[in-house]
Amino acid sequence: MTDTRPTPRLRRGRASLAVSFFVQGAVFALLVTRIPALQDRYGVSDGLLPAFLAAVPVLAGVGSVATEHLVKRVRPGLVLRWVQPVVSVALLAAGSGSALWQLALALAVFGLSVGALDASMNMLGVTLQHAYGRSIMLGFHAVYSLGGIVGASLAWAGAHWDVALPVLYAPLVATLVPVALFASRWYMDHGAGKGTDKGTDKVVGESDQASGSGSGAVSMKLLLPLCLVMSFAYIGDSTVSNWSAKYLQDVLHSSEQLATVPYNVYMVTALLGRTFGDLGVRRFGAVAVVRAGTLLAAGGFAIVAAAPGAWVGMAGFTLLGLGLCVLVPQTFAAAGRLFPGASDAAIARLNIFNYVGFLIGSPLVGALGGAWNYRGAMLVPMVLVLATLWYARSFAPTPARYGDGHERSRTVDVG
């Protein structure tokens, strides 16, 4: 990365993309934290609910694949600009229907559009990081975590005061959609760098090869280590989001009220880790930050598995938030460095493994917990996350980003 002094246009592009990350964090939290209310509203049985929940990440993966091809013709900024309102409206539709087919349709639209949103949002983040010449990706994901905290807090308030889902969702969507559309005027697309093409949202002055909009090929052999890391990180994340409350209450015998706290603690520590993570990358390098995050996350799972009581378990979830939070943003950034001539395609493919991990994590821990025990089940994501240490060198800046394919293969293909 070159040391580029950010222009006012770059700073506006960064701020506008941060708004998009915040909105998406809030919308996603408003969905996942109110799943029990959705289940009650539509009368979804416990047996059918997993099928509905599994369909969302599957369709999100389809949306991510479609985005890889779409951005060859349409700039990622335009994709993000129009797909983000669709995600928000799908949330409102899911909370406003009465028939089961309406829920299925709303969740299908949500899944497809959220895949396109996640892919295009991270494409723009990688483009901006390249233009800035320093690590800023963790900051975007910190804003996403902040949005998640706000969304989860609003959902808690809605549940506490028994607010109907349409009444909760409608004013929020009516606020978030215009805000996101207004901010989208300053999205930054390919080629962010030295000069400005004032007639478009595109900043020019660097070659397509440097910006990621070129026609370079993506080698899945080289991308695979990052795909595995992405899956491992989301297996860990989905374990916390889906099982932390049950684990604290059923295994560590906490109160029902205390059992709601671990995920909030996890989100807060993830926010803190991501807020300061970019400074760590600039100071110590991406490899060191990824290794430190991996060890913290693995230690968190070990503490959770061995915890004698609820408060020790809470300490484990705190470490998990600090550790896991750095892995996903750095994985996207590493893909952008690895394939500078085809970063959009690389990020779209990598993003699929976000949903693979999410889809595997919760059922894996549930199955192991039921067949064995939940303490032992917590050791499985610990081992998977620890495997990231084997692939940590994949996060190093390499000569490949300047076009040296031989050096790229030698440096990155460590698995």
From TrEMBL:
It is found in: Cell membrane. The chain crosses the membrane at residues 15-35, 47-66, 78-97, 103-124, 136-157, 163-184, 288-311, 317-340, 352-372, 378-396. It is a multi-pass membrane protein. The keyword Transmembrane applies. Keywords: Membrane, Transmembrane, Transmembrane helix. The keyword Membrane applies. InterPro entries: MFS, MFS_dom, MFS_trans_sf, MFS_Transporter. Residues 223-415 form the Major facilitator superfamily (MFS) profile domain. This is MFS transporter. It comes from Streptomyces lonegramiae.
